[in-house]
Amino acid sequence: MYTLISKWTILSGKEKEAIELLKNLAVKVKENEPDTWTYLVHTPDFSEINLPTPAIGEVVFFEIYKNKEAFTAHVEGHVFLDFVQQHGNLFLNNYGKPYVTLEILTNQAGFIRTEHFLK
Question: Which domains does the chain possess?
């Protein structure tokens, strides 16, 4: 299992368009990448207290892959690369690609109640 959290930043005024396209990206990942076990796209809920306060436009990806090779296949695959090429301009960029923070995680314990998940 290869688990990570990644963050991008949507540019001001592009939020609605970017969110709709990210929803579509998640569907395409699910349909085309069977070794991507979890692919969740979140944005901060500013109606709640957040400590520290997240950046406006922040997008948080929580992803679980079968293994590191599955993650590499995702970031080098046509679904992801096509998305970045076509829509990367909606996000804060670094050298022409979305600026990304990435944290690789090691699972220590826990569970997912799939019967309640994303209904």
Answer: 2-108 (3.30.70.100)
